[in-house]
Write a structure and sequence with these properties.
Blueprint: E1 2-4, E2 9-12, E3 20-23, E4 26-30, H1 35-41, E5 46-48, H2 57-71, E6 77-82, H3 84-95, E7 102-108, H4 116-124, H5 126-135, H6 141-145, H7 148-157, E8 165-172, H8 185-193, H9 202-205, E9 210-215, H10 236-243, E10 256-258
Parallel strand pairs: 2-5, 2-6, 6-7, 7-8, 8-9
Antiparallel strand pairs: 1-10, 3-4
Helix pairs in contact: 2-3
Length: 260
């Protein structure tokens, strides 16, 4: 069962992501796998932002701001950001008048205190990848913006806005040779920061007034199944719990519940 909120819900993808993955111009998969459709079936108005996949936080935040101004020119809203999407949302809430209309921000696997794998990768991998980024005319600032030093500066500048409710979720993943996605990053983050979702540590992902840990990897937080675990696995029950705590400002704290 998923909650039906009175205010719209905006989903914000992370670094190297997009609103929907496409093949040959054909939209194939949602970044938040199956979540927009399930939420709409429960009676919600759901918007999914499409931001630059590799730009820095400030540029992506401007894109998010413009998207919200265009699609939701008035009225309250809830934001839900995965990974870097949570940082883009924090910037918009703190640095623009739109923040006054945001009721809540829920972040999933967001590196609020930076990612030690970015620290490790910049001197080792970025020089190898830079020619590819230049060839495709893609910015690389997003990688530099999630280092631990960059995020320390970010947190000094970007303050939480009073009146906005902040929630967060971290992932806890155990090393598994069947999942090739995190074979390089997981041990680096484990060494420097401890338990993590393959990319972002539990410590870095914690933010706000309420915090949860889900067993799963970084993309599992966005409702993607882990390879060779279960074809039917999803996070809709956990999302239902997250969203049920988001009553709309100025109205009854009870949310309406609709069966999925």
């Amino acid at each position: 069962m998923l909650p039906r909120l009175r205010a719209p819900l905006v989903l914000i993808h992370g670094l190297f992501g997009t609103d929907r993955f496409r093949l040959g111009g054909l939209a194939c998969w949602d970044y938040f796998r199956g979540l927009p459709e399930a939420l709409r079936q429960a009676g919600n108005r759901v918007l999914v932002a499409r931001l630059s996949p590799t730009a820095g936080i400030r540029e992506r935040a401007k894109e998010l701001h413009d998207f919200l101004q265009r699609e939701l020119p008035q009225g309250p809203m809830h934001l839900l950001g995965h990974s870097m999407g949570g940082l883009d949302a924090r910037y918009v809430i703190s640095q623009s008048d739109l923040g006054r209309r945001v009721l809540s921000l829920t972040t999933l696997g967001t590196p609020h205190r930076g990612c030690s794998f970015a620290d490790w990768a910049i001197p080792r991998l970025v020089p190898l990848l830079a020619p590819v980024f230049r060839y495709w005319q893609l910015p690389m600032q997003g990688i530099f913006d999630v280092t631990t030093k960059a995020m320390a500066r970010f947190n000094e500048e970007i303050r939480d806005r009073a009146g906005v409710r902040y929630f967060s979720v971290a992932g806890r993943w155990q090393w598994n040779w069947t999942n090739p996605n995190w074979q390089l990053s997981y041990p680096v983050v484990q060494h420097y920061e401890g338990e993590n979702d393959g990319l972002v540590s539990i410590q870095s992902a914690q933010w706000g007034q309420d915090f949860e840990i889900w067993d799963g990897d970084h993309m599992n937080l966005a409702n993607w199944p882990e390879p060779f675990v279960s074809a039917e696995q999803d996070r809709l029950k956990e999302y239902a719990t997250l969203l049920a705590r988001l009553p709309d400002e100025g109205e009854s704290p009870a949310v309406e519940i609709a069966e999925k």
